[in-house]
Design goal:
Mean pLDDT: 91
Helix content: 40-55%
Number of domains: 2
Largest sheet: 6 strands, mixed
Pfam families: Peripla_BP_2
Shape: globular
Protein name: ABC transporter substrate-binding protein
Low-confidence stretches: 10-15
Order of helices and strands: HEHEHHEHEHHEEHEEHEHHHEHH
Number of helices: 14
CATH class of the largest domain: Alpha Beta
CATH architecture of the largest domain: 3-Layer(aba) Sandwich
Strand content: 5-15%
Keywords: Signal
């Protein structure tokens, strides 16, 4: 028995040493938040520009000033592990990193409740803490059940508000979210209905598509609202006042990293959006 306990203690010590020796680079806000949620934030040495949460991650160096990635920019931080979303690392950069004996784990994110749990566990397995991953998944499931029950109760028998999500980086760069997108999923889970059902993913924004969709609510990331000059400026955009959202001045601004987390903060995300929708449509 003593030998068994000694072996277990040695394994735990070895695991802790290995965790401390890791140098992780995370290349999306959801990945970064998940690694921190698993208790390995101290092992993260650099992130991408989208990783602004938690505060400790926001203070870390960035591998690039924008979304463009280079092998040199990543390797400068001497990572032992790079975690990246599928499609974000160019093939040449990925090859260079792996030829340099740097482990790269590419993660595909499914925008659903089940996908969030799989995402957490995949990252936990990649960083070497599978048991912690199971614990975080179970904890997230409990919270999700509680939040989903609240939303179901509060929306029972009520008409779902049509929500149009606009991605904006100034008036010259705008697109709207269709079916199958992360925003489509989070809007549905929060008790709303995506106003765009004619196409999948994202397509360029047009005044015609806005008026045709006639949303009850217009949703944007906080930086999108700022890039367009604020909520009052959005209400003055062509066609907006022809929609129910425009007439009722229903513009919602939300934190981007929270809204599309689909990981450890998914329950927080859908509750926050649900509360915003409830607040602006209370007299509907």
């Amino acid at each position: 028995m003593k030998k068994f306990l000694l072996c277990v203690t040695l394994l735990l010590l070895l695991h802790n040493v290995q965790a401390k020796e890791q140098r992780i680079v995370t290349l999306s806000s959801a990945i970064t938040e998940t690694v921190y949620g698993l208790g390995l934030g101290d092992a993260v040495v650099a992130t991408d520009v989208t990783s602004v949460s938690p505060k400790a991650a926001a203070a870390l160096p960035r591998v690039s000033k924008n979304r463009a990635l280079s092998a040199e920019g990543i390797m400068a931080y001497r990572p032992t592990l790079v975690l990246a979303p599928e499609g974000d690392i160019p093939a040449a950069v990925l090859k260079h990193l792996r030829e340099s004996h740097i482990e790269v784990v590419v993660l595909k994110q499914e925008f659903s409740e089940r996908g969030a749990y799989q995402f957490i566990q995949q990252i936990a397995d990649a960083v070497g803490v599978p048991a912690m991953g199971k614990s975080v998944v179970n904890r997230t499931k409990v919270t999700m059940r509680e939040i989903s029950a609240i939303i179901a109760k509060e929306t029972a028998g009520k008409k779902k508000p049509k929500v149009l999500f606009i991605y904006a980086r100034g008036t010259g760069t705008m697109s709207v979210a269709g079916k199958g997108s992360s925003l489509d999923a989070v809007i549905e889970m929060a008790g709303g209905k995506n106003a765009i059902q004619e196409f999948a993913d994202f397509k360029p924004y047009t005044t015609e598509s806005l008026v045709k969709a006639n949303p009850d609510v217009i949703l944007l990331f906080d930086f999108g609202v700022s890039s367009l000059g604020g909520k009052e400026a959005i209400l003055k955009m062509p066609g907006v006042k022809l929609t129910t959202a425009g007439k009722e001045k229903r513009i919602i601004s939300m934190n981007a990293s929270l809204l599309v987390n689909f990981s450890t903060r998914l329950p927080e995300s859908i509750l926050a959006l649900h509360q915003e929708l409830t607040a602006v449509t209370k007299n509907q």
